[in-house]
Amino acid sequence: MSSSSATSTTPHVPEGFRLHTENNVHILMSENEAFLNPVQEFNRDLSVACIRTWSEELNKLKQERRAQVSKKRALKIKEGSAKKRQRVNEQVSVVVEEKPLQSEESQGGKTDTDLQPTTRPEETFDYNFTILEALSATGLRSIRYAKEIPLVKYVLANDLSPTAVAAMKRNVELNGLGVEEKTEEDGSARKGKTNLGKVRVNQGDACALMYGHRTERVDVVDLDPYGTAAPFIDAAVQAVKDEGLLCITCTDLSILATNNYPEKCFSNYGGLPMKAEYSHEAALRLVLHAASTSASRYGRYIEPLLSLSIDFYVRLFIRVNSSPLQVKKALTKTSSYFVCTSCQSFYEQPLGRVIEKTGAGDNVNTIYKTQPGPTIGSRCPECDSSLHIAGPMWSGPIHDTNFVSKVLQHIEANKDAYGTSARMQGMLTVAKEELPTPFYFTPTKVAGFFHCQTPSLEETTSALLHAGHQVSRSHASPGSLKTTGTCEDLMDVFRSWVKKHPIKNVSETSPALRLLAKEPRAEANFSKHPNSVTSSSKFKIVRYPETPANWGPGSRPVTGGGNKRKRKHDN
Ligand SMILES: C[S@@+](CC[C@H](N)C(=O)[O-])C[C@H]1O[C@@H](n2cnc3c(N)ncnc32)[C@H](O)[C@@H]1O
Ligand SMILES: [Zn+2]
């Protein structure tokens, strides 16, 4: 069961409402009042697990730091009292040289240990943290955070729509999180006020609220809007504390992961999307780019902890910190890509580089330079087709393996706490092993470019491993592989494959012939490599589950201030 104190009894459902229950949180729904997408349970489960893991790690860190500070302070006091005693002794010995020094006991029974500050034992200190959910709708997510994450101090749940806010207040009460507030005038208790409890409801514009928290920052900001989160990112990166967590959902994959609206993608994320089977990873990198450039403006930088492409949306968990040095390095984690219009080979064009020069006295002078380019000619070296530009986008790692392992451990130990734990385990196991290098491919797709029979995942993996490259899966697509090899290395594997499995009936104009016009630099070895089975494929886990029922971002309710009809770009 959920780790929270759950409301176990089914509440009374007033006429005109229906009850939605997710993980012991009850939500009253009425027609067109506030938005709720049941398919997003996976998103909410994942968010509870990630925020909880992040908070427990931060708590440990704060406890360690506190213990160190107390230790140092105690040592200083000890040193101070020893010196003081020495000074007193010296004075005494000068005045009455023959008089022996007093023992500690005779100084009123005080010892060094007694002079230390009376600090609480470190294990009793817990860092209770705050969450700001900028776009809360029914409040389901905020209520789950408040009930299921032990270290939450309170959640600030906000929505622009008055009807959503009314629903939220009702749901907070329904789940036993409303508190009584004493009125200032007569001190009488009024039931139903929600601004002091564990979920504090606010009606207002998300950006206005977040900009209001620029000085008094919160620990976690969660953005789960309709469509794009882009208009909220600038305010969000400023509202979150150092070491804080920024959680972002974007459902506008028609913009982020296709080439249909490049102008819209550029205006929202500052980079261009790509048309390729790996465009969903590009979508993640474009959102990270938007977060990184926004953060940089305020002397802050991002560390992606987990970046997932799921069903019809992307969900990212990003740590935010301040450091002028790391801000400068953002340039070196940003690239554009040239993508072949036929065979989807990609060529990275990094934007910046760091040069470190050691000067006099071993002083290291760091200089930032632009990268030379172009890194590629105007045609694809593999098939001679034209190339399109994508990005700039984030080119650094998209997950923190250590963090993903911790989330996995938490889910494994709390399987019953989540409705979607099997799927979470599957996806995170793949994400944990994912190579940090950009993009993935599927043997099926590449075989399609060659018009050849498809080698199995094991054959493709083995050939790449035998050639000295690393291989992993990608969480973003079933049957996909990532490799440290170049696109030429991959194409050579397929050129070798075609020699063993010749193709027939290919038209003279087919790009397949152009791909085969190049000889492979070495003959690929398709025999089973001992490392070809990654641990994620050893487990019987749901790595790539079926598309859930009622799949999709859902549609907005038609009434209420912030709830307008769905726009063209919303999904
Ligand atoms: C997709 S729903 C949120 C779903 C919710 N996070 C969940 O997990 O169930 C988006 C919400 O954003 C609200 N909204 C839209 N624009 C807003 C703005 N500028 N400020 C605050 N809320 C806004 C809408 O009223 C809607 O309730
Ligand atoms: Zn090509």
From TrEMBL:
Protein family per UniProt: Belongs to the class I-like SAM-binding methyltransferase superfamily. Trm1 family.
Keyword NADP appears in the UniProt entry: no
InterPro entries the record matches: SAM-dependent_MTases_sf, Trm1, tRNA_met_Trm1_C
Biased composition (Polar residues): 103-119
Assigned keywords, A-Z: Coiled coil, Methyltransferase, RNA-binding, S-adenosyl-L-methionine, Transferase, tRNA processing, tRNA-binding
UniProt-listed Gene3D superfamilies: N2,N2-dimethylguanosine tRNA methyltransferase, C-terminal domain, Vaccinia Virus protein VP39
Domain of life: Eukaryota
Annotated EC: 2.1.1.216
A Pfam family matched in the record: TRM
GO molecular-function terms, A-Z: tRNA (guanine(26)-N2)-dimethyltransferase activity; tRNA binding
Entry coiled-coil feature ranges: 51-78
Ranges where the record places region Disordered: 88-121, 545-571
Name this polypeptide is given: tRNA (guanine(26)-N(2))-dimethyltransferase
tRNA processing is among the record's keywords: yes
UniProt GO cellular component terms: nucleus
Phylogenetic classification of the source organism: Eukaryota, Fungi, Dikarya, Basidiomycota, Agaricomycotina
GO BP terms, alphabetized: tRNA N2-guanine methylation
Native organism: Lentinula raphanica
Catalytic activity reported: guanosine(26) in tRNA + 2 S-adenosyl-L-methionine = N(2)-dimethylguanosine(26) in tRNA + 2 S-adenosyl-L-homocysteine + 2 H(+)
